[in-house]
Amino acid sequence: MTQCFYCQYKSKPDYKDIENLEKFLSQRKKIVGREKSGMCAKHQRSLTKHIKYARFFALIPYVSYQGIK
Ligand SMILES: [Zn+2]
User: Fold this and answer.
1) What pLDDT digit, counting tens, does each position of 11-24 carry?
2) N or C: which end of the chain has fewer CB within 10 A?
């Protein structure tokens, strides 16, 4: 991925949009770094904010050990 996902689709991170937020979470539900996700600084910042919202509303877990042995 060379271009920022949200710039590419002309959309913005949204805490209700779990499907897309999860693309930027690691297996353990940690936020993937900008180097890896190819996200621009602006969207990375707002993504982090929205992931934290989503966690607060219990839409995504803080940590997950599911599927990890
Ligand atoms: Zn962007």
Assistant:
1) 999 999 999 999 99
2) C
**Cα-to-centroid distance, 64 and ligand 1 (Å):** 27
Enter the DSSP assignment of 12: -
Domains and CATH numbers, the chain: 5-56 (4.10.640.10)
Q: How far is ligand 1, taken at its centre, from the CA of residue 19, in Å?
A: 17
Q: What is the pLDDT of residue 24?
A: 94
Q: Quote the ligand 1 centre to 69 CA distance (angstroms).
A: 34
First to last CA, the chain: 28
**Identity (one letter) of the amino acid at 23?**
K
Q: Which token pair is 8?
A: 């590419």
